[in-house]
Specification:
Shape of chain A: globular
Oligomer: homodimer
Number of helices of chain A: 8
Helix content of chain A: 25-40%
Number of strands of chain A: 15
Number of domains of chain A: 1
CATH class of chain A: Alpha Beta
CATH architecture of chain A: 4-Layer Sandwich
Order of helices and strands of chain A: EHEHHEEEHEEHEHEEEEEEEHH
CATH topology of chain A: Nitrilase/N-carbamoyl-D-aminoacid amidohydrolase
Strand content of chain A: 25-35%
CATH superfamily of chain A: Carbon-nitrogen hydrolase
Largest interface: A-B, 47 and 47 residues
Chain lengths: ~280, ~280
């Protein structure tokens, strides 16, 4: 593990429902651009190969692939090996149990390090996907310790705590944030939430959203890389395709001190938070 | 309980260490102004009568007052009765146990409804105060259900959940945010955190900070009233004295639905968050 800053990129790319080869090509191109610009950790959107607005569960299933040997993880593993990257991105996973999951993978030059299944499903996702039921993984990579959550997952602070407490220095959040009205002068609330999640855990968070209207649904954009102070180091992106970069000294996230006598993790009052669970 | 919108005010006032009579007069004047402008729920800063930057624990103790019969709660209760308000503000409390607490009170026209003791102490507060060890209260008032946390407390999402789950429609947060460097174009991270806490729980939050450099310490300001979407309805204030107002339909916070099929509380995966606590 190095203490040197590493360049992190979030790729806000245009995706299309039901065009996995085309979407993988778009992702491949974006990864090559950001790697050429020095990025070594690359975050791609949720459900990058499949797209998001499935007409039916059968359509989602038809676009799902197995984690082992599937074309998307194979592609990303190849890119990671060729360009010495860590890539985190989302895909529709066909589980060995026959269920379909909204998943994300962390790959590095050695191949896939771990697969995570989204535990908090948004809206019609519940018709297409089984929710995950295991804790989010943290991968110890040559660039730092990297965790992953997917989109709506990150809106549950209890869930964000899990990878943070497991030592994630950078949390990657592949996302597809459907567009909502944002009041003038405000950042989208989903972006604000990412910043606050970084602040609450003194870790870096890189969220990559998507673009491309899909069956009438458009997207917030707003891809952002937040530092451990909760401030945006890059982004928030607009609503169009955009590649954002931040130089991140991930070692800063190893200390949870937020003042000479305070620590965002040690100061938690676990004696008070969940007495009902201890009875 | 009414469903009509109620005007909420956060009073960012100038306070001085060790001048409780003067500080109470400043608070009295601010409350009268905002009440005259239609506010019915009024939030005052943390440690309003005493000031914050104590030289010694003995000084903090000398500025503490008992909740029952103390001059500050008496004053605020009088104002609440006279002007038909709910007032939430912070004060240094001398407990019946002889300990000194960083506390806040909710008063309405019937007098004090509940006293809360800050559970997460910041920096040198630990030299002056005992931490509280009870859950934050929620008062059912004629204007809605109102909860209270104090400053650093609100940076622990687990703790914010407690009043939200107990039905708080508006969380009042008396605060003294010490000034920190804020990058250009960014809102202070403490403000972002308040917005995200509102978003995570679909409740209103009104945070009132202070002004007035005190023994070399200045303040963020940034008083803000956030709606259940996480957007600022009023503020964030600047660094000077400022009274901010928002018309809040508190009944909106009774539904936790954030979409046709989602709910920020019901969607929590309690089966996953704290397995270690259940063993």
């Amino acid at each position: 593990m190095t203490n040197l800053p590493v360049r992190v990129a979030a790729c806000q790319i245009e995706l299309r429902i039901g065009e996995p080869d085309r979407n993988r090509a778009v992702a491949d191109a974006a990864v090559r651009v950001v790697a050429g610009n020095g990025a070594r950790i690359v975050v791609l959107p949720e459900l990058t190969p499949s797209g998001y607005v499935f007409a039916t569960a059968a359509e989602a299933r038809s676009l799902a692939e197995q984690a082992a040997g599937g074309p998307t993880i194979a592609q990303w593993s190849g890119l990671a090996a060729e360009l010495d990257l860590v890539i985190v991105g989302g895909f529709a996973e066909l589980g060995a149990d026959g269920a379909v999951y909204n998943s994300a993978v962390i790959v590095d030059r050695t191949g896939p390090r771990c697969v995570y299944r989204k535990a908090h499903l948004w809206d019609a996702e519940a018709d297409c996907f089984e929710p995950g039921d295991t804790a989010p993984p943290v991968a110890d990579t040559r660039y730092g310790r990297i965790g992953v959550l997917i989109c709506y997952d990150a809106e549950f602070p209890e869930w964000v705590r899990q990878p943070a407490l497991a030592g994630a220095e950078l949390l990657a959040v592949p996302t597809n944030w459907p567009a909502e009205l944002v009041p003038p002068g405000e950042r989208p609330n989903v972006v604000v939430n990412i910043q606050a999640a970084a602040f609450a855990n003194r870790m870096f968070i890189a969220a990559a959203c998507r673009t491309g209207t899909e069956r009438g649904v458009s997207w917030t954009g707003g891809s952002v890389i937040a530092g451990p102070d909760g401030y945006a180091l890059a982004g928030p992106a607009g609503t169009g395709p955009e590649l954002i970069y931040a130089q991140c000294d991930l070692s800063l996230a190893r200390s949870k001190a937020n003042g000479p006598r305070n620590d965002v993790h040690a100061d938690r009052r676990l004696d008070l938070y969940a007495p009902g669970l201890r009875a």
